[in-house]
Specification:
alpha/beta; 6-stranded mixed sheet
Length: 237
């Protein structure tokens, strides 16, 4: 994985891995920033034959605790982030990738849906446990293939809890997308795809601080299976 810059002024930082001629996937960060979890997810996707780009939307900053991560997300310029995701997709297409998808986690899940609506270069998207503010993204207008994933025990009301997932499902149906689906995973909550508890020392410490239950390997494996099949169908066909 290497550091890169992209965009018209070549001033947007990110991390890239994979063959430049391969189908591409934009991997979007959680509210913590570009962590080892996010890099590991991009590396995992690259093993299946994808070129992956992680835009660094915080420009190198990392949230080392809940308060700092909350501050970073609250201060994110979402319209600028939208433009940077669109620039990422254009960069990938212009430099060799025949097709571009998007995946994101938590804050990145919401940003994934924003990218799906606003970038013509993104052909499909797989958001995890995050939905966007309707002022910047109207999910009822997204007719592209969307494969969304939520934890049944997620308590982030209005953002990624079961009610938010249900609302997204209703909106995607209203958009007329025949190849979209919303999956609910039992026994897990927010951030169930994280293989590391960072920035906490353990998953138990994360649960104690945030009320987030540890991941279940069976559910994580099922989600990986689903997104790999999804991207195979829509990016490699």
């Amino acid at each position: 994985m290497e550091k890169v810059t992209f965009g018209e002024a070549n001033n947007i930082p990110g991390y890239e891995i994979g063959d430049k001629s391969a189908p591409a996937i934009i991997v979007l960060q959680e509210w913590w920033g570009v962590t080892e979890n996010i890099k590991a997810q991009a590396a995992q996707l690259s093993k299946s034959g994808y070129r992956c780009l992680i835009p660094d939307l915080y420009k190198g900053k990392l949230g080392l605790d809940v308060e700092e991560a909350h501050h970073l997300m609250d201060n994110l310029d979402w319209p600028t982030a939208k433009e940077e995701i669109c620039a990422a997709a254009k960069y990938l297409k212009d430099t060799g990738s025949p097709s571009v998808g998007c995946v994101g986690f938590c804050m990145g899940g919401a940003l994934t849906l924003i990218g799906a609506q606003h970038s013509d270069d993104i052909v499909c998207a797989a958001p995890f446990y995050g939905t966007p503010d309707p002022s910047i993204c109207q999910t009822e207008k997204i007719s592209k293939p969307i494969l969304a994933h939520f934890g049944e025990l997620d308590t982030m009301a209005g953002f990624s809890d079961p009610a938010a997932a249900k609302k997204l499902e209703e909106n995607l149906k209203a958009a007329g997308g025949t190849e979209s689906a919303v999956f609910m995973y039992p026994g897990v909550g927010h951030a169930f795809m994280n293989s590391l508890p960072e920035p906490f020392e353990s998953f138990e410490a994360r649960k104690e601080t945030m009320g987030v239950v540890p991941p279940i390997e069976e559910q994580t494996a099922l989600a990986w299976k689903r997104i790999l099949e999804f991207f195979e169908k829509h990016l490699k066909a």
